[in-house]
Amino acid sequence: MKIVTIVQAKGGSGKTTLAMAIASGAISKGVKVHLMDGDRNPQLSEWPARVKEADWEGIEKPDWPASATLSIVPATIEELYETLNKLETSGVDLVIIDTRPGTHSDTEDLIFAADLALIPARPTQMEIPLIQDAFVWINKLRDTISKDDPFPNVRIVVSDAPKSVIDASQNKGTDRLSKKDYDVLVKLIQIPHLSTILPNSKVWSHISYYGPLSAAQGAYQKAKSALIAKSLSKQLDIAEVLAEEIMQEEFK
């Protein structure tokens, strides 16, 4: 079982969206996923309820996938590890933990429990210092434990990126980038990162209402709502690549 903890000091940084994106890709690839919500604003654990309440304008909503379970982060570290052990025994392949904003001791516990710590990274000048600070903070935690003790890999995931940034990151030219955006991209790629980038898309901004993308895509396809189905399918392809990259990451 792989455990991924998503962290960022700033609220509204895209942690929950990233968790939902990874879950969508993993579920679509046949991975059994458990989502664990440690945020004081529990959007992740309320995901099924948000989908149920969302207005799909007459589209018949699919059942929530049986391969995606959800819970709140347990109150104590002992209960956390007990829960993780039970999840592994039950056949869960991937646990995704969303955390509250800030550098709190309980967030540190969730990092230590992980195989991989991910930091969502919007490619803007305003976000760069926050991303760098989060990366440094997590890595400093390594110094608080023995060198023989396991510690998660730390990676950023570039998210909410415009096409020009994605093209430049894929060596398709930087002529469409302003100097400001180019400087941001250079700083981001100097930080250990996953290669998959989540683009700026309405799908990601509305994913809490769509639910896991494979189920939503199938529902819209069945209803012959081709435009939305195509958009969902495009972003699902990216989510699958992201999930596969995470599952193939060399864990502790």
Question: Outline of this structure?
Answer:
With 252 residues, the protein is of the alpha/beta class.
Description:
The chain has helices at residues 15-28, 47-53, 77-89, 105-112, 128-141, 163-169, 179-189, 202-205, 207-210, 213-222, 226-248; strands at 2-6, 33-38, 68-72, 94-99, 116-121, 153-158. By secondary structure, it is an alpha/beta fold. A 6-stranded parallel beta sheet has the order 3-2-4-1-5-6, sandwiched between helices. The mean pLDDT is 93. Strand 5, helix 5 (128-141) and strand 6 (153-158) form a beta-alpha-beta unit. The protein has one domain (2-248): 3-Layer(aba) Sandwich (Rossmann fold), CATH 3.40.50.300. It has 11 helices and 6 strands. The chain is globular, with a radius of gyration of 18 Å.
Please name the CATH architecture. 3-Layer(aba) Sandwich
Categorize the overall geometry.
globular
Strand content is 5-15%
Mind describing the biggest β-sheet?
A: 6 strands, parallel
Cα(first) to Cα(last) distance is: 12 Å
Averaged pLDDT, please? 93
Number of domains: 1
* Unreliable spans: none
Residues in helices, as a percent range: 40-55%
CATH superfamily: P-loop containing nucleotide triphosphate hydrolases
Say what the CATH topology is: Rossmann fold
DSSP summary: helix tally:
11
Strand order of the largest sheet: 3-2-4-1-5-6
| DSSP strand count | 6
Structural class: alpha/beta
Highest CATH level, the class = Alpha Beta
What does the radius of gyration come to?
A: 18 Å
Reading the helices and strands in chain order gives EHEHEHEHEHEHHHHHH
